[in-house]
Specification:
The protein is mostly beta strands. It has one helix spanning about 15-25, and strands spanning about 10, 40-50, 50-60, 65-70. It has 1 helix and 4 strands. The longest helix has 11 residues, at about 15-25. It is elongated, with a radius of gyration of 12 Å. It starts with 7 loop residues before the first strand and ends in a 10-residue tail after the last strand.
Length: about 80
């Protein structure tokens, strides 16, 4: 299936994703629940190119995570 802009998809955090989210948050607690690898969140496709997409992942709290260059069913890869 080709991703289309505006589509809501399920996105599962990798260890790298969770580490990046927690580092960006700077250890702040109270308004955010901890992001951990394996957790699945809704994400909106914001840009497509080829079979890949950039996503805004809606986390459990007031922030989002920008997941770039992701393919369907493909684990996140550093340096991509």
């Amino acid at each position: 299936m080709q991703p289309t802009i505006g589509r809501i998809v399920h996105y599962t955090l990798s260890e790298h994703d969770a580490d990046a989210i927690e580092a960006r948050r700077g250890g702040a607690r109270g308004v955010n629940n901890r992001a951990e690898a394996g957790q699945t969140y809704p994400a909106i496709v914001v840009r497509t190119f080829g079979g890949d997409a950039n996503l805004q992942v809606m986390l459990d709290g007031p922030d989002t995570y920008w997941a770039t260059s992701r393919g369907e069913g493909e684990p996140e890869q550093q340096g991509r």
